[in-house]
Fold each of these.
Amino acid sequence: MKDLMADYYKQGAEAKEKGIPVAWVTAVFPVEIIYAAGLFPFYPENFGAVASARKMADKLSSFAEAKGYAHDLCAYARCGLGDAHSKEHPVGEIVKPDLLLCCNTQCGSLSKWFEVAARFYEAPYFLLDAPQIGMEADDLCKKYYTAQLKELIAFLESFTGKKFDYDRLREVMAHANEACRLWNAILETAALKPAPFGFFDACFHMAPIVTWRGMPQAVNYYRTLQEELQNRIQNNVYAIKDERYKLYFDHIPLWPKLRWFSEICASHHALVAVSQYTHSWAYSFDLEHPLESLAENYTEEFVNRVFDYRIQRKMQLMERYNVDGFILFSNRSCKPNAFGLYDKKNIISSITGLPGVVFEADMSDLRFFSEAQVLARLESFFEQLESA
Amino acid sequence: MNNKEIIEIFKGAAARPDEQAEYWKKEQESKVIGFMLTDVPEELIHAAGFLPYAVNAEEGRLEFADAHLQTWACSFTRNCLASAVQGKLSFLDGIVIPQTCDTTRMLMGIWKHTNPLPFMENYRLPRQVDRPSAREYLRGELERLKKSLENFGGSEIKEAELAASISLYNSNRGLMRQLYAMHVENPQLLSGKELFLIIKAAMVMPREKVNSLLKQLLNHLKNKGVSHVKGNKIRLLISGTLLEPLELLDYIAEAGGVIVGDDFKNGSRYLECDVSEDKEPLEALVDRQVNRIPSALFDPKKGLRKTYLVDLARQKRANGVLFLHLKFCEPENYDYYDNMQAMEKYGIPAMRIETAYGGLPQGQLQTRIYAFMEMLGGGDAD
């Protein structure tokens, strides 16, 4: 895994040297198009996550804050903007963009960050705009998104000076289909009791599905991982010792405290088995209708859905993984996922009867983390879980 | 009525917006549809026969929202939700929430579960306006909203009705712009705070009545002519998402400032740009939305916001720019650095102050505004 990501960053540097344009992209962007167009996609969110896991988010953020960006903006954005305004680059310099491509299903913070970065790096910016979808999929949004994919392709053609190759797109999409299938089969092993794999493992192994979706490397990576999991199952190797409970978790992990958090759960024999977060990359493309299919897959996921749909999605996953309780993370850096969680917790508990808890922190920035407070909330949740 | 009396009517409506909306509702036997500020095509609501009513944050207790919404959501949204939770908005028959940021995008679900209203709709604005796809989508979204209003009202919105509402709103915007110009010319007659209170009141009152009051007010003010202006008037451009609390404008006036322009959603962004009366009405509404003055909501490639603000400051001969930023407003905060850089580049003095609805440490704000005004070369209060 480390090798793979080191390799990925190296490729970014090499792309620059070879003159292959580096396109900044967001995690839920149809990257298949970027690969098909022969560009190198770079994920600044990944840069933020890596900086956060290394506990460097607040340091990077301070460079952005010195320029007037508030500490309540998304921490990934502060990491990226902090790096832009820093001379020290404490986690290594971000790969600079030749163009920036953003899809705003995830949030509006990304689209503003990319807009700002486009001005900073003086590179062209394309926003793939996705209006929010209600309980039912909606033709208006699908048409709008499909029309924008065509505009995106025209934009890339004019940027690269090359005609877009739809056959290559189908090839890339076929790889993405296979990678998504494998990834989801891997995630499913967390439903076994006891399970060889859980959410924290998924966080560790998710980078290829985010960054390399559409490339054979991701397929190879997950084939190997799947074999390894089969071995673990055969040899009775499990994710945690004496698994008694399974939990659902929302959403992005607490990167700088990932181990701390996983150890608390493990000490209660609770496996965090599932999260909508790691299940985000579950695409299944129809190669006969590539653009329409990209539009459906990318806009109809929960990230682009309303409150009630998100509740339904969470409850589906809770049922499928047969969880005993749920932990919801009110993440200051992620308004779309955090806002509504208080009511969602009450609604889900009253429908399912499952114990649940909401805790407050930031996915990256430890200035917004109080260990004592989070621990107190979690401990009272585990008491509830264990007495149920 | 003299001008003072007319201004008092507006002030009263701004102070107790619900009272006059409820009065209208009884009198007209019709429905009141709320909207969050301010990218909503009110013309559609009006044409459906309803009273469009701006849900604005009132002086109230934010903590009522705390069980539903994190304290790091902006105070505007928390305040609106707190009003709903307390039942202060129960006279509304519905609400339209324009999705202009992550918070407004997630608000509907919470509101629906907390205090459901008979009619609840999102208005899903496109977040890009430069490409042809945006127009086509927006047209579809307006049609969807129109149909939804028709279903709720039980009758079709006819083209002529929509055209009439557009015309009414155009004259309203025109009259307000005249009033704005009057303030710039002669702040002694109409203060900045009075101007923005009138805008606030107009958003909740029947437009027919607003227009008739505005015409009378403008006549009075024109007859009074320009009075003697004491002291140096420092010409100030103010910029941000939502302008509140309006007391800020008093501090500016006390320090010798006059507001010559702004880009607030409850200011010039609301008043600028009319809807064409020569086009098919829905197309004309699309035009207005994509041509509105830049805000943090959009990323217009042609006419960047920072360029717009620099041009506006020059055109209005502003001595400085005061950014009044609602705390926790992400889009606004992302724009700030670039806006500030542009001001520096063109030698326009600028400063930022963070604002919030309700409980601001007023003394501190006053001091900062005075200091900025003094730096701009004024400071001698009238």
Amino acid sequence: MDEQKTAVTPFVEIRHVHKAFPIQPNTKPAPVVEDVSILIPHQEEGEFVAFLGPSGCGKSTLLHMISGLLSPDKGEVYALGKQVSGPDPQSVTVQQAYTCFPWLTVLGNVEFGLKTHGVEAVERRKLATEYLHKVGLGDRLDANPRQLSGGMQQRVAIARTLAMRLPIVLMDEPFGALDAQTRADMQETLLHLWQDEKNLVVFVTHDISEALLLANRIIVFSARPARIIYDMLVPFERPRPQSLLYDSQFLQLSQVLIGLLKHSEATTSDNTSTSGN
Amino acid sequence: MSNQKQHLLGMRGALSRRADTTLSLLALGIAFLVWFLVTYEYAPEKRLVTGLFLPSPIDIVHGTQNLFRTGEMPGAIWVSMWRIAQAMFYTILVGVPVGVLMGSVPIIDALLRKFVDGFKSVPPTAFIGLIILWFGIEERSKTVFLFLGAIFYMILMTKNAIRNVPESYVTVATDIGASRLQLIRSVLLPGALPQIWDAIIVCSGLMWTYIILAEWVNASSGLGHTISIASRLNRSDEVFAGVIAIAIISASTDWVLRAIRRRFLNW
């Protein structure tokens, strides 16, 4: 990182963070995140960082400490220069589970986020409608979320998150439960949307191709407890089409990452990873 | 699992729709037939079971007709429904907010839990004497009795409804930045609404069983009163007429409330 950029307040700074909790009920707390430090400097054009690691390694736990839904046992987390303590109003998370409220319409769900941030009714409707059009649900505004497929529900969640236009957007394996084709569509939509937002996206995934396709930078974590084992800058130009998946350099980098993940699981395989987060 | 057709003598699982309907109607038909045969007047005053002991279906039709002709029945239905409506109003007015607060705020739960659990186990009939002492023998004591019979169930079921709202909804709302008040008003309450509605359905049924007791003592109107008078006069036909009226009203209320639940509160 060059001098000029570190002078600006970084998007996120994580300093020597530790977190432990019981993996299964009635067991002693086990370390889930161990001495992790990450600096994500501010970028004018926005930044897209992927947290890559095996399932249940603790990367989601780390994400929740950035959002303030969890607090670290040791160490500090700063978002835009402010220490995070409690749910942070500058960041919002797209969860893995489908989280649309079934008692609200699709439009109502997207407006809900804006409402809690005190956006006026007229502006709220305008923004919500705009973002639902952007995710391709412009004709389903009055639908009930339960009538939508999993992929569409996740589009609503993404619209709800992005419509709030916060500087930090966190994504916790948001496409994890989707089938391959839907997943590819969603990745494309997300990339397309992010280009206009100039914000920071931190995207948690255990899918190597997904990380390479979406992110500028990939931070690779070991199996639990999560430690950083590699920090990679992704060299591909944007926009990135799905055909990139068959590019030779892409495949090479995939191989490197596969090797890293395998190695990390081999060295810390005393804990069989359950999907604890 | 449920789609699988079951052998007629299979354990658990579902019968085919037709077999199920046939069997349940058959059982009903046989019961009715037996009832009809044992109470049939084969010759004047000659039947297996006397009308006082068990009135025949025809006796009950006559009894019902009689109660409608004198105007007793429509008035009694109206009075009982009105009493239950009032008691239900207060039960919801008190039970839902208290239940929501107990379900959402652990401090309030800790403070109130012992009272609610304790009173829930006490039959309201135990309080009849006190209720009359405190609220008199007029209208108010009937409403209070019905209220006491249902309120603790209402509170507990509402509390459980709040507890059953998926944690993921709460997490999302918290993350988005909802305040505690917004969380209760915009997430927990609407999330729990279908189950709170179920609680209302249960309490409504409960009140229709308590109404007889409420109107047995010192009432001058209502279906409970009708039944009580009829039984004192040995008019078994009218007792059954009253019981059937209560069953029909209670079951139709239930049906309407469930239809509303299916149509509007289906999450």
